Amino acid sequence: MRCLYCRRSIGAVRRMWDREFCSSDHRKRFRASSARALRDAGELLADYDDYLAVIEKPEKKQTRPNGSKFGLVTAAMVGVVIGLSMWIVPSGPVPIPAAELRYTLAANPLSQKIRSLIPDSPRINLRRDFRLGMGEWVGLASADDYLPGALRTDSLRLWKPTMRLSDYQMDFQGSIDRRALGWAFRATDLNNYYASKITLGSGRAEIERFVVMSGREYDRVRLPIPIPIRAETLYRVRIRVKGDQFSTSVDGQVIDQWRDRRLRKGGVGFFAEKGESASIRWVSLSEPDGFFSRLLAMGLFVPPPAF
C-alpha cells in the first residue's frame, strides 16, 4: 500500500492502524492541500471547516469496523504475551550453581524455543548475581574480594567465560566505596585490555579510559561526566562494544563514546587502582540489542532486585 500524499510504501507496523498515509503529518498535509484545491476551484465547499466536517464523517464510518477488529486483535495479543510472561519468567531468582554461568531468563524449554524463533535473539546471554557466589574469575584474589551479595574490586579480576568474545553489551550495577569504580573489556589476559573507570575528585566526577598492552599503559584520557555521581550510591552502567566503537552510559544517559582498533576481542572484568575500591552487585553480558530483542525485553526481562 502507498501513502496518498507522498506515494511511498506504508510500513508494515503503520498499516496495522492506517492504510492510507505513512504518517500523521502526511494525513494532515493531504487534508490541507485538498481543502485548498476545493476553495481555489470554487466548488461545493467554500469553508475549510465545513470541508473537514464532511470528510471526517465518512472516514469515521469506514475506520470504525477496522478499528474495532484491530482493538480485539491487539487485546488478544497483549493477553497472550502477558500469559506467556507470567508462565515463562520465574517469579523469583533462579538458583544457579557457581559453575553453571550460561543460562537464559528461565530454564523452561518453551521459553528457549520461543527465543530461538526470534530473528535477532541473542546468542550471548551470561549473568552473574554475586548473591550466588563468585563463579569463574581470573586474577589475584584476596579474602576481601567477596562480600555478602557483592564483589569488591581491589585488583584486576576477569570473567573467564567471556574471554573469547568480541562484540557484546555489558551491564552491571555497582557503587563507589573509595574514589573510583573501574571495569575492563576486550581483555585477552591480565596484561592486555581496555580500561575505563568513573572517578570522584574534589569537584565534578570524571570518566577515565586507557589501553593496557603487554602490561604497559597507553593513552589515558580524563573527561568530565555531565551527571552527578556520588559515593556509596548504586548506579547501573552499560558498555556497548561493537567493532572499534565503544560507548558508556550510566542510568540510561550516555557519558562517553570513543573508538580504538588495537584489541579486537576479549572478555570483561573489574579492577581498582591504588587507593580505590568499588562494590559490584551483579553483571550481565549479551549481544548488542536488536529490535526484536528490545521488544522482548520490554515485556519479559526481570532485572535482579537491588539490595
Shape estimate? elongated
How many individual domains? 2
Structural class call reads alpha+beta
Helical fraction equals 25-40%
Low-confidence stretches: 59-63, 89-108, 297-307
Summarize the structure.
By secondary structure, the protein is of the alpha+beta class.
Structure commentary:
- The protein is α+β, with helices and mostly antiparallel strands.
- It has helices at 24-41, 48-88, 109-117, 291-300; strands at 125-129, 137-139, 146-147, 150-153, 157-159, 168-178, 180-189, 192-199, 206-213, 216-224, 235-242, 245-250, 253-259, 267-271, 277-286.
- It has 2 domains: 14-86, no CATH class; 125-290, Jelly Rolls (Sandwich), CATH 2.60.120.560.
- Helix content is 25%, strand content 32%.
- Strands 1, 3, 4, 6, 11, 12, 13 and 15 form an 8-stranded antiparallel beta sheet that branches. Strands 2-5-14-7-8-9-10 form a 7-stranded antiparallel beta sheet, with no helix packed on it.
- A hairpin with a 6-residue loop joins strand 8 (192-199) and strand 9.
- It starts with 23 loop residues before the first helix and ends in a 7-residue tail after the last helix.
